[in-house]
């Protein structure tokens, strides 16, 4: 049976990132940027290497790769994200383009990375196949996704609050499961199916330092796509209860005047033969 195309989901994500671009950089971006170094280490970026940062968002990985001496291009399908990345890293090249149909010739890069993009794609297998296509022989590929909600605690807290006080039946367009690649087996098999060799998966125990409990609620409300849409679809009364439940759950992570939230990450990588 052919894989579902999830076209409506692709358009929903595109519209969502156009809306969330600015808030994302102020919220989740402060966390995802922590994974840029380990991601680039995994593809062994050297000075002069040709590196592609797919779904580059505000450009953290591309910016760091450029600082390490790589010849890097960032590509993202949201024009507002591309503008944000150009503003932050004016010396780095950023282009508009779709991860599922990359605007580059075969064999153009020594390394390709995707930082927290995979879980937003309508067709992740197409994106992995495209990364394989644009890599030269021997090229390295790596991507990060969030671990399951019990390890990426911020997601667990918000999702549990929605289930307890709101509704999960909010009519979002159907897409691939958000936590699909949190399972190492799913990463390993998708990489092998695309023709990569020596796939491996490791975990990064990131900690998200938040200035207040409400910072997580606001990040989830305005800085994401599926989670934000799910929250914005609740009734005002339910939203008040969800917000209170998020605050209550975060008390156990208080660390002085901040919140120190465990946000586990799965880092998958492989080589093109
Ligand atoms: C969670 S953000 C990650 C941004 C950045 N890489 C980071 O680590 O913070 C997801 C990014 O993927 C982009 N994106 C989602 N689907 C895409 C697609 N099909 N093609 C290209 N970019 C896509 C979004 O516009 C957004 O910038």
- Strand composition percent: 15-25%
Helix/strand-derived class? alpha/beta
Number of strands: 8
Give the mean pLDDT.
96
Unreliable spans are: none
Q: What share of residues is helical? A: 40-55%
Q: Major sheet: size, sense and barrel closure?
A: 8 strands, mixed
Total helices: the number is 11
Query: What spatial form do the alpha-carbon principal axes imply?
Result: globular
H/E element order: HHHEHEHEEHEHHEHHHEE
Radius of gyration: 18 Å
Distance between the termini: 29 Å
- Bound ions, cofactors and other small molecules, one mention each: S-adenosylmethionine
Comma- or semicolon-separated keywords:
8-stranded mixed beta sheet, 273 residues, binds S-adenosylmethionine, globular, single chain, alpha/beta
Structure characterization notes:
By secondary structure, the chain is an alpha/beta fold. The protein has helices at 7-26, 28-32, 36-42, 60-67, 79-88, 124-134, 153-165, 184-193, 213-222, 226-232, 236-250, and strands at residues 50-54, 71-76, 93-96, 109-115, 135-146, 197-210, 254-255, 258-271. Strands 1, 2, 3, 4, 5, 6, 7 and 8 form an eight-stranded mixed beta sheet that branches. Helix 4 links the parallel strand 1 and strand 2 (71-76). Helix 1 runs parallel beside helix 5 (79-88), helix 3 (36-42) crosses helix 4 (60-67) and helix 7 (153-165) crosses helix 11. The radius of gyration is 18 Å and the shape is globular. The mean pLDDT is 96. Bound molecules: S-adenosylmethionine. S-adenosylmethionine binds next to helix 1 and helix 2.
């Amino acid at each position: 049976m052919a894989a579902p195309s999830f076209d409506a989901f692709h358009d929903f994500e595109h519209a969502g990132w156009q809306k969330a671009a600015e808030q994302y950089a102020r919220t989740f971006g402060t966390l995802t940027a922590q994974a840029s170094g380990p991601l680039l280490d995994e593809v062994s970026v050297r000075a002069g290497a040709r590196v592609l940062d797919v779904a580059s968002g505000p450009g953290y990985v591309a910016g760091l790769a450029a600082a390490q001496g790589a010849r890097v291009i960032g590509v993202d399908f949201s024009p507002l994200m591309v503008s944000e990345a150009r503003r932050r890293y004016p010396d780095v090249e950023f282009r508009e383009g779709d991860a599922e149909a990359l605007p580059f010739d075969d064999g153009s890069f020594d390394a390709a990375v995707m930082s927290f993009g995979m879980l937003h794609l309508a067709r992740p297998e197409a994106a992995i196949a495209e990364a394989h296509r644009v890599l030269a022989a021997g090229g390295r590929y790596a991507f990060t996704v969030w671990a399951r909600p019990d390890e990426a605690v911020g997601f667990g807290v918000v999702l549990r609050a929605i289930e307890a006080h709101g509704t999960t039946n909010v009519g979002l367009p159907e897409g691939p499961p958000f936590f699909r690649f949190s399972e190492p087996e799913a990463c390993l098999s998708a990489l092998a199916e695309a023709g990569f060799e020596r796939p491996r998966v490791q975990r990064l125990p990131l900690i998200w330092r938040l200035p207040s409990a409400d910072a997580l609620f606001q990040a989830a409300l305005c800085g994401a796509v599926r989670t934000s849409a799910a929250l914005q679809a609740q009734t005002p009364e339910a939203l008040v209860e969800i917000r209170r439940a998020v605050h209550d759950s975060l008390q156990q992570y208080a660390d002085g005047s901040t919140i120190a939230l465990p946000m586990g990450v799965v880092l998958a990588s492989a080589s093109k033969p």
